[in-house]
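worker-3 :: picked 3-methyl-2-oxobutanoate dehydrogenase (2-methylpropanoyl-transferring)
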Amino acid sequence: MAVYLSKSRKVLADLKTTKMGFQLGVSSRTSHFPHIYNHSSYLSENSWPTTLRRFESVKADKQFDSLRTNGAAPHADQVLNFPGGIVKFTSELKFLSGPEERIHCYRVLDDNGQPISNNFVEIDKEISVKMYKDMVTLQTMDTIFYEAQRQGRISFYVTACGEEAINIASAAALKTDDLVFPQYREAGVLLWRGFSLQDFANQCFGNKGDNGKGRQMPAHYGSNKHNYFTVASTVATQIPHAVGAAYSLKMERRYACTITYFGDGGTSTGDFHAALNFAAVMEAPVILLCRNNGWAISTPVNDQFRSDGIVVRGYAYGVHSIRVDGNDALAVFSAVNLARKMAISESRPVLIEALTYRAGHHSTSDDSSKYRPAEEIEWWKVAQDPVARFRKWLEGQNLWSTQAETELRDSARKEVLHAIQVAENIEKPTLKEIFTDVYDVPPSNLRDQEKSLRETIQRHPQEYPPYVPL
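worker-3 :: tokens ->
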């Protein structure tokens, strides 16, 4: 983001009088993104002028003409025509420091599910109900799959406990042509797009129905059909991929964007900073959605950075940015809905920092009670539950009832348990699948490895699982 020249300030001020949400060039005390503007008129009336995308700069030949005419640049100008934009001079010796007040957080629903504003993107009734159903289904799936791992039926699992609103609401605001580059806590995005519970179970059990043919860790989903790139455990590597894909969409003039999800820990990597700068400079249509849940495994955000969270990092790189309540489904939906329109129609990146809390363990390999107080976890689970908050709003709209709640949870539990039972009984991929899908014709080194593996299994059959077809 930028502080614009005085000649641009009037334009900016005029834009601020509209219902503009992603503000630019204002003081830290007012950069709190309090509004979402009228999305229906966005593509026509409220499109940002392209001249505001970069700082203005005087052409070099004009500057040199001035030097030849006057012998020197007028002192009255008090500016430097530096590459990248004109820089004003000042006699004040002052270092930049952090803002005195934290960037505010956009919110629609309070803790009790009551609207505090009508400044949000309206959602169709059918979509609202589907959002809630998918949030409950995701919550149920996480609970049962976590238990399955504890029973030794799968080797690993990671939940989205406390982050259901970010998953489902962001997915609902996207289109199916938009490409998703997830981290590992976005199963709800795939659920929204139509990935079935059986598909999830097949992947976690690594059977023949798994798209990855058992070659990925459990909960590392991927689906070409749903434009959902396969999850990788390596932190933040998906961010530059999403930016590069967005730039490709721009070059192809496709009416779509990419979205990438990552945690606060991901912003401490070089990949995040390199990708953010590339997206800003190349004006790639990408939504960068940070789930700031307070903890990068056992490292709290206070031990990661001294800046005001993630939103100011977008500001520093010249990217439109906003901070939203990640436990408020309406706020997340509104922010992503608007971000998508900005990314595509203006061809620009948008950063969203969603404040939430990882109410569960980082994964089944983690015990968060070792580094977080139990009372803190319980408070977030109960008082800030995004699923319960959205349900209260639906009930206030007469779109939900106690009977519907009971039926939904019973049905979701039965469907998940059935999917697990089926997945356990499906045959595993054959041994040969380890060596396929990379080369059209396997090279000699892969053929040698396969031969060596088969000979080893024949010599030591007791060391290998009997349920893997040879």
